[in-house]
């Protein structure tokens, strides 16, 4: 691996100087001449029919330029699951009824944000309140109010997966356990709120939208569907984005309504959510009810698993079905499960719709799996590490009809963490304990619900006469460092320097399609596309160099360190810069253009590759008040060949932080569909004083499918964090949990319960 | 994002007298006083408070001071910023508990602009300074149309966000008497997240006899567990005149938890908050006792 | 009714008339177009908008602009020395101390104030001083390392200046 000149070396973020000097432009910072400010009027009711809307008073307010309601829109239905038209259930504004508190019913554009906000108070909406339903188990009942008229029992989508003979395998198990879990939701809580700026060109009828999005392409498609326009007439530009975390995949009312208002006024319109809207009306992690059954041999070998899931989908579909699918898939990771049966249901109800937060599906599935494994290990008298080692996936593992694992360094990761626990944590006090977990995560999704005819990712390269390179990709850097990764991959493949490359990211008008930043896909998918485009250019340059050298055809040429030369006789070659000049001059001045693309093939149905790892946490519990302190974290991580170790570490650190939040303090309680804590004062996020240090070990593997052997590193470490903590508390106190968000009061109660339970046999 | 979307008249008095005159000019409903504004501006952004006149006293530098005298004790001008209290060498030396409390009050950014007087006058039952000041037996100086008066810190907050300030009155000074000999004071609050408002907080001042064994006086103040910070007098009675032991402190904790009247909200139930009081009183007592012995 | 605001921002004197209801962050971003200072919340609880007022870290969303009258404000745009980044900024880049970058201006301005007060902070001291700053991306550890790295750079710079 050491033959790389750029890959694997700690590399400064290419956006760094702009981001540390306040010069990086976010949509939030943008103002266009003559720009109007838009605001959305939202439903105060969870479920109601719109009888009438009177906007006349609002329109009279000085400074108001446009007020629109559902009837002013083209009424196009949109959603991410475009392959299935019945799952495209959203419209720009409510057409006939509202389905959750916050469902937008009207939009206003005015010369200032203040005027727009005052205008909202002047819109008079008459509602007929309908009965509402909020819980998934209630929503599927026959007498529950229906969210969507044509969808019976509020069942949005179902999923069944099965392999092996599950019933037989349970019969042959020595030990079977069943556990139930209930999870709450988690906010994405990006520091940059959702916001979009739309500018309609009156001359051409085309639309340009700048938006804080994770996927310019998805937004382009969503806008085209909602506005009933050609996607080619819509240009989406993603400036710098202040975080996504899974909440910015969907087309949201800010972009659609900014576009509609701009089309109506002929002026640019910007809509910026406030923090309360962000908490109550943007996508969040899917809350779930799970029932999980696992069968084991006496020695801890897993025989079978049965998993039943009902998810709290909220009012619309969006990416929700993917959460349902992935949870069912991740319930089998990262272990060898010979027989598996999964049944999942996603339900509609009268709350903001739920989709994805970083590591969605995995976090939820792993919490149940990892907790169950420790309970089983405890009952079977096996150590938590041994039971995992015994069942760990190995390279080449296949789940029939579902997925294939390529490279897999899981056992090495388990060994590494075990070794470090023994070396490092020799002085545990009586209130301290260790939780141990493993994890796996996908490198992008194979499923094509968006129904794109394009490759999953593309890239384009233009080489200029002086050897500088313009790299065009639609990959979405939302902070994870994709821009840097792409420049590094391009530089490595072409054998040039990072300083030679100018990146043009994430503009649907100038870059080939990429599906965006979700499911940790950019390094694998866009990385491969960039590498392919660079290889395309390299071949053209090598052709010229070969011609100039006049060497035997069997000799290979290489591009490296800004030279192109004979692989076996490196001294025979030319400067890269000279070859570029020759190539352009020899070809009638035609610019050198390279294109590349990537779509996974023959890799099953889920993901082209899988990253693995294991984690241990050292936890201290204050038994009297239930406070949980995570003192120290060890992670061993197989992300294949790390492209940028700085970026990899950043991703693991951030993942653990988000996992700690889901595990310890983040939750979104609701009351009759109303979110009760819509501010950073009441929604608790771990701050720096409570953040443990993380010891990270990279276990190098080579993933044949990945660019330079790379796999994902952006999400995997979220999932194992919370169950590691729960397991540690279990080992220290005996307290058992069937939910996440282990706030001190919950821990305190669980400890009391465990103490009561421990007392009981003595009483008898 | 949310901004203040209503207009108001902004008044910036240059002296206390000017401020008091302005206060008497407008009635309670139409005017509001802003000091550091760390809480007020948020309420105004949320449209929860919509004054027509905003009297900005942040610039009254006359009310920004920390003075100490062995006889008179400590005097803190109401407009002294939290950070100045935190970092004051004399406070660190003579009333370290005040400095310790400030170190964990919100974040540095708030402490750099917010004032201790503003904090007390805001009367959030979860506010930290009031709890410590009650344990320290502090008095508050108020200036108003009919001159100046002082009152016990304990009596200042009367309900959720409500104080004993009369119309036209301003909190101007915090007065902390010199600690009696053999006195130890400790404050703690608990929340899952460091720097957050406490789910419950406890301040305790223990004074020992000359022999440093018997508790001659004790003051216990609780925050966040009643509509206003309260004294736990039954808990105090348990300790007063006794040799303090762990068992006795546990008993005081139990009594204090019964004196508290916490509510249930999304952060915690009343039951858990009572439990916190029980445990924190015990723990704070151990530390205050140790300090008293060292004093 | 508009009121006069005279203050210094990044060394430049400003004399403007503004509505009293404007927050400092609104004047910086909307009037002066210094959009490097971001906003993350409506409750004064994220510190994303932190600037320095008279050398101290303060949340610009929790100060009325008129309260900055006569004061010296430093924002992220005032940190670099011409084309040369400030050592704190350099340290943030070298240590990968940001990801999305949205909270970074506030983090850097708070670091700047911290390092003036405490030129050689420990990990715990940095944690304590930076505790109000919400970062959803980094998990804070790499920011902490960058600040301590910056401390070293600033000290080296000082001794270099002394040597001259």
Descriptive overview:
The complex is a heterotrimer of chains A (764), B (295) and C (164). Helices cover 29% and strands 25% of the residues of chain A. Chain A has three domains: 16-23 and 456-598, Aldehyde Oxidoreductase, domain 4; 31-130 and 189-281, Aldehyde oxidase/xanthine dehydrogenase, a/b hammerhead (Aldehyde Oxidoreductase, domain 3, Alpha-Beta Complex); 356-444 and 607-763, Aldehyde oxidase/xanthine dehydrogenase, molybdopterin binding domain (Aldehyde Oxidoreductase, domain 4), CATH 3.30.365.10. Chain A is an alpha+beta fold. Chain A has a seven-stranded mixed sheet with strand order 3-5-1-12-9-10-11, with helices on both faces. In chain A, strands 7-16-15-14-8 form a five-stranded mixed sheet. In chain A, strands 20-28-29-32 form a four-stranded mixed sheet, sandwiched between helices. In chain A, helix 6 (216-227) links the parallel strand 10 and strand 11. Chain A has 18 helices and 32 strands. In chain A, helix 10 packs across helix 11 and helix 13 runs parallel beside helix 14 (522-549). In chain B, strand 8 (157-159) and strand 9 form a beta hairpin. In chain B, helix 10 packs antiparallel against helix 11 (246-259). In chain B, the strands form four sheets. A five-stranded antiparallel sheet of chain B has the order 4-5-10-6-7. Chain B has a four-stranded antiparallel sheet with strand order 11-12-13-14, with helices on both faces. In chain B, strands 1-3-2 form a three-stranded parallel sheet, covered by helices on one side. The model of chain B has no long low-confidence stretch (mean pLDDT 97). The longest helix of chain B has 25 residues, at 270-294. Chain B is α+β, with helices and mostly antiparallel strands and 295 residues long. Chain C has 164 residues and is α+β, with helices and mostly antiparallel strands. Chain C folds into two domains: 3-78, Roll (Ubiquitin-like (UB roll)), CATH 3.10.20; 87-163, DNA polymerase, domain 1, CATH 1.10.150. Chain C has five helices and five strands; from the N terminus they run ββαβββαααα. Chain C has helices spanning 24-31, 87-94, 104-117, 123-129, 141-163; strands at 3-9, 12-18, 50-53, 56-59, 72-74. A five-stranded mixed sheet of chain C has the order 2-1-5-3-4, covered by helices on one side. Chain C starts with a strand and ends with a helix. The mean pLDDT of chain C is 97. Chains in contact: A-B, A-C, B-C. The interface between A and C is large, with 54 and 54 residues.
């Amino acid at each position: 691996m050491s033959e790389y000149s750029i890959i694997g070396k700690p590399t400064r973020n290419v956006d760094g100087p702009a981001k540390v000097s306040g010069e990086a432009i976010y949509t939030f910072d943008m103002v266009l001449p003559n720009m109007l400010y838009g605001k959305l009027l939202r439903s105060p009711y969870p479920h109601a029919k719109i009888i009438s809307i009177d906007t006349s008073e609002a329109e009279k307010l000085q400074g108001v330029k446009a007020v629109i309601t559902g009837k002013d829109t083209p009424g196009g239905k949109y959603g991410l699951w475009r392959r299935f038209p019945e799952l495209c259930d959203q419209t720009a504004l409510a057409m006939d009824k509202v389905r959750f508190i916050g469902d937008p019913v009207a939009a206003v554009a005015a010369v200032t944000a203040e005027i727009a906000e005052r205008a909202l108070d002047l819109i008079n909406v008459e509602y007929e309140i309908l009965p509402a339903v909020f819980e998934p188990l209630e929503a599927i009942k026959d007498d529950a109010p229906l969210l969507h008229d044509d969808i019976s029992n509020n069942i949005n989508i179902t999923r069944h997966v099965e392999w092996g003979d599950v019933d037989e395998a349970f019969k042959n198990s020595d030990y079977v356990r069943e556990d139930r879990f209930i999870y709450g939701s988690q906010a994405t809580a990006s520091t940059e709120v959702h916001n979009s700026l739309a500018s309609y060109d009156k001359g051409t009828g085309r639309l340009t939208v700048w938006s804080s999005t994770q996927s310019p392409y998805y937004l382009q498609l969503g806008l085209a569907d909602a506005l009933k326009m050609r996607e080619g007439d819509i240009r989406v530009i993603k400036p710098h984005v202040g975080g996504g975390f899974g909440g910015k995949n969907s087309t949201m009312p800010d972009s659609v309504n900014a576009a509609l208002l701009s089309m109506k006024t002929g002026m640019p319109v910007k809509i910026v959510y406030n923090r309360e809207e962000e908490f109550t009306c943007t996508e969040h992690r899917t809350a779930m009810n799970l029932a999980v059954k696992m069968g084991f041999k006496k020695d801890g070998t897993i025989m079978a698993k049965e998993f039943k899931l009902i998810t709290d989908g909220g009012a619309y579909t969006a990416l929700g079905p993917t959460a349902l699918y992935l949870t069912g898939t991740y319930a089998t990771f990262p272990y060898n499960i010979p027989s598996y049966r999964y049944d999942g249901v996603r339900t509609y109800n009268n709350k903001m719709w739920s989709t994805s937060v970083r590591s969605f599906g995995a976090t939820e599935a792993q919490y149940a799996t990892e907790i169950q494994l420790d309970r089983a290990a405890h009952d079977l008298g096996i150590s938590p590490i041994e039971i995992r080692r015994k069942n760990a996936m190995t390279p080449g593992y296949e789940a029939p009809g579902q997925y294939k694992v390529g490279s897999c360094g899981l056992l090495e990761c388990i060994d590494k963490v075990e070794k470090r626990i023994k070396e490092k944590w020799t002085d545990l006090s009586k209130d301290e304990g260790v939780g141990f977990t493993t994890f796996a995560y996908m490198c992008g999704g194979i499923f094509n619900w968006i129904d794109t005819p394009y490759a999953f990712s593309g890239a384009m390269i233009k080489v200029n006469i002086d050897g500088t390179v313009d790299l065009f990709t639609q990959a979405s850097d939302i902070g994870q460092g994709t821009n840097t990764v792409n420049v590094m991959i391009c530089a490595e493949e072409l054998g040039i320097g990072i300083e030679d490359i100018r990146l043009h990211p994430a503009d649907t008008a100038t870059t080939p399609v990429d599906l965006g930043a979700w499911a940790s896909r950019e390094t694998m998918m866009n990385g491969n596309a960039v590498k392919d485009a660079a290889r395309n250019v390299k071949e053209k340059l090598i052709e010229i160099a070969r011609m100039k050298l006049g060497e035997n055809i069997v000799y290979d040429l290489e591009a490296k360190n800004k030279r192109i030369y004979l692989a076996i006789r490196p001294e025979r070659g030319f400067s890269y810069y000279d070859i570029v000049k020759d190539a352009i001059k020899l070809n009638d001045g035609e610019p050198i253009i390279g294109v590349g693309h990537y779509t996974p093939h023959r890799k099953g149905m889920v993901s082209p590759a899988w990253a693995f790892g294991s984690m241990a946490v050292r936890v201290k519990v204050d038994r009297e008040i239930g406070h949980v302190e995570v003192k120290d974290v060890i992670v061993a991580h197989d992300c294949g060949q790390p492209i940028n170790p700085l970026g990899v570490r950043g991703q693991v650190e951030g993942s653990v932080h988000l996992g700690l939040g889901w595990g310890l303090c983040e939750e979104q309680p609701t009351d009759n569909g109303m979110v009760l804590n819509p501010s950073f004062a009441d929604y608790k996020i771990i701050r720096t004083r409570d953040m443990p240090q993380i010891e990270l070990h990279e276990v190098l593997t080579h993933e044949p499918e990945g660019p330079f052997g790379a796999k994902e590193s952006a999400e995997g470490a979220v999932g194992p964090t919370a169950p590691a903590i729960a397991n540690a508390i279990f080992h220290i106190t005996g307290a058992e949990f069937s939910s996440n968000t282990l706030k001190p009061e919950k821990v305190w109660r669980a400890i009391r319960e465990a103490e009561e339970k421990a007392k009981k046999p003595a009483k008898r | 994002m949310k901004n203040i979307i209503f207009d108001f008249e902004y008044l910036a008095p240059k002296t206390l007298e000017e401020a008091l005159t302005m206060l008497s000019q407008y009635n309670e409903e139409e005017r509001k006083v802003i000091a550091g504004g760390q809480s007020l501006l948020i309420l105004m952004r949320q449209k929860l408070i919509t004054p027509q006149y905003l009297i900005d006293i942040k610039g009254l530098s006359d009310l920004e001071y920390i003075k100490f005298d062995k006889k008179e004790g400590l005097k803190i001008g109401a407009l002294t910023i939290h950070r100045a209290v935190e970092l004051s060498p004399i406070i660190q030396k003579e009333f370290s508990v005040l400095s310790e409390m400030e170190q964990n009050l919100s974040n540095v950014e708030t402490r750099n602009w917010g004032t201790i007087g503003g904090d007390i006058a805001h009367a959030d039952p979860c506010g930290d300074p009031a709890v410590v000041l009650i344990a320290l037996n502090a008095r508050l100086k108020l200036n108003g149309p009919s001159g100046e008066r002082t009152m016990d810190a304990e009596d200042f907050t009367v309900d959720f966000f409500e104080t004993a300030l009369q119309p036209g009155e301003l909190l101007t000074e915090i007065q902390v008497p010199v600690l009696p000999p053999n006195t130890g004071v400790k404050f703690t609050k608990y929340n899952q997240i460091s720097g957050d408002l406490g789910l419950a907080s406890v301040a305790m001042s223990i004074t020992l006899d000359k022999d440093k064994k018997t508790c001659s006086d004790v003051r216990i103040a609780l925050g966040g567990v009643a509509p206003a910070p309260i004294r736990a007098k039954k808990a105090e009675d348990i300790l007063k005149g006794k040799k303090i032991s762990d068992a006795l402190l546990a008993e005081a904790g139990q009594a204090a938890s019964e004196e508290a009247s916490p509510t249930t909200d999304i952060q915690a139930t009343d039951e858990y908050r009572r439990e916190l009081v029980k445990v924190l009183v015990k723990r704070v007592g151990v530390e205050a006792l140790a300090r008293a012995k060292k004093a | 009714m508009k009121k006069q605001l005279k203050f210094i921002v990044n060394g430049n004197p400003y004399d403007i008339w503004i509505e009293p209801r404007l927050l400092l962050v609104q004047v910086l971003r909307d009037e002066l177009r210094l959009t490097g200072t971001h906003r993350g919340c409506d409750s004064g609880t994220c510190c994303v908008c932190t600037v320095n007022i008279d050398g101290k870290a303060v949340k610009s969303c929790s100060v009325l602009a008129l309260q900055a009258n006569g004061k010296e404000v430093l924002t992220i745009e005032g940190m670099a020395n011409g084309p040369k980044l400030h050592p704190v900024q350099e340290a943030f880049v070298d240590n990968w101390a940001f990801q999305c970058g949205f909270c970074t201006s506030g983090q850097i301005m708070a670091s700047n104030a911290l390092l003036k007060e405490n030129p050689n902070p420990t990990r715990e001291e940095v944690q304590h001083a930076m505790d109000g700053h919400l970062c959803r991306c980094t998990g804070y550890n790499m920011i902490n390392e960058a600040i301590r790295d910056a401390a070293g750079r600033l000290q080296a710079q000082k001794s270099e200046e002394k040597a001259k």
